[in-house]
């Protein structure tokens, strides 16, 4: 199970405006930050890790950063786009079929360093990756809004209800299978973002509720059920919070892939 994601450090899915994207576009006219050197190669990951990457489809790879260095191990193009533009898997659309095949040729290792040994911020590192993808993968994308299935958080019968925190001073956190909303209380919009990561769909808060303290426990889909296991996410939300995830259709901001090629040699 991955380490708990602290509320202040959570990287939420980006809400994108409808506008063309250029890897070189910035809010100012200055030259965008870029990597001084970068290596992109077909992955050398072990077979087990490669199989996991293939099974995840557009999974989010680990974006490792240390000083001037940034690295991504065993990622397909869709995962690299997610890192560069900070979006969820369902927000990347129209990737050519040849790049979605379960083929080692579609999985890459990336190792890059910023100019002058500087330590870029996370936002600047993302822009650097956008530039790199444009240069080495000939990636061209634009922003759009697509109609697709979503979930809406709405009150269930008699809801909502807020089970007390076992430890009121516990920091607010999220891991698959548990959300702790204690210190500080979790805004419902942020709660919806957590649920989006679990359901693989955009989740919208339609409760009109303010932040509340509560605990929510469920059995992740990847976990094996035990006699004392909590219920599934959809059941847990209704039983523990008297809320429900209602399937709907809605407008979702997306990154549309217009063009992409295999990376140029190092």
Descriptors for this entry?
266 residues, disordered N terminus, 4-stranded antiparallel β-sheet, alpha+beta, 21% helix
Q: Compute the separation of the termini in Å.
A: 36 Å
Mean pLDDT: 86
- Give the number of helices: 5
User: Helicity level, as a percent range?
Assistant: 10-25%
| Integer count of domains | 2
Describe this structure in words.
The chain has 266 residues and is an alpha+beta fold. It folds into 2 domains: 33-137, no CATH class; 147-252, no CATH class. It contains 5 helices and 12 strands. The strands form 3 sheets. Strands 1-8-9-11 form a 4-stranded antiparallel sheet. It has a 4-stranded antiparallel sheet with strand order 2-6-4-3. A 4-stranded mixed sheet has the order 5-12-7-10. A hairpin with a 2-residue loop joins β3 and β4 (69-75). α2 (77-85) packs antiparallel against α3.
How would you concisely characterize the structure shown here?
This protein is of the alpha+beta class.
